[in-house]
Amino acid sequence: MPSVHSSPYFQMDNQAMLSLLRQTAGEKRAKSSTGGLLKMFKLFPMLTSGCKMVALLGRPRKPLLKDKATTGTIFGYRKGKVSLAIQEDPHCLPMFVLELPMHASAFHKEMASDIVRIALESETRTHKKKLLEEFVWAVYCNGRKVGYSIRRKQMSDDELHVLQLLRGVSMGAGVLPGPNEKETADGDLTYIRARFERVVGSKDSEALYMINPDGAAGPELSIFFVRGH
């Protein structure tokens, strides 16, 4: 993997972010690679919105994997924007939900690259809240600023629908049935769910590194949270 400073995508000037990124550049993180999981995005055109199996998998009440990995889900309609939800496990209410300022088509293109880094930077300087309790975030994808997002206090109906369907799913990617199985002008409801290693750098910086279930080498997906100083 190229170093942080040699990456053509990285343009942020934040020391906390650089510290977290150096960890990925300086270590071989095989368990965080996502070759098998990310390749599933190429199957989207082959899947249908009638994923009954997902609804069936949503019925168990006990976690299938008993460890401290964090669950992350990125989902949205093909012609709409994608949302990010972070949970301690698939059966808990999310600790963090926001709609990213990215359309699903643009996000899927980024997923085709070897390294995908989503960075969220809060410009709040009071430090009275925990990092993930901040509301306003500048969003970067592979070093390019794509806009701003506001963390939701309450989930939308579509977000609640997705998390209910996936409450028994630990990892996977595909297409979900929409609410009430109605067709929408925004296209299929796509999702990717994975387990992440959560690394707390300080009270102002955290990172999530995707855990690849098969351990195969491949692309990496990382999500960074940083609060300005």
UniProtKB/TrEMBL annotation:
InterPro entries xref list: MIZ1-like_pln
One Pfam family named in its UniProt record: DUF617
One example of a Gene Ontology biological process annotation: hydrotropism
Protein name, entry field: Protein MIZU-KUSSEI 1
Species in which this protein is naturally found: Rhizophora mucronata
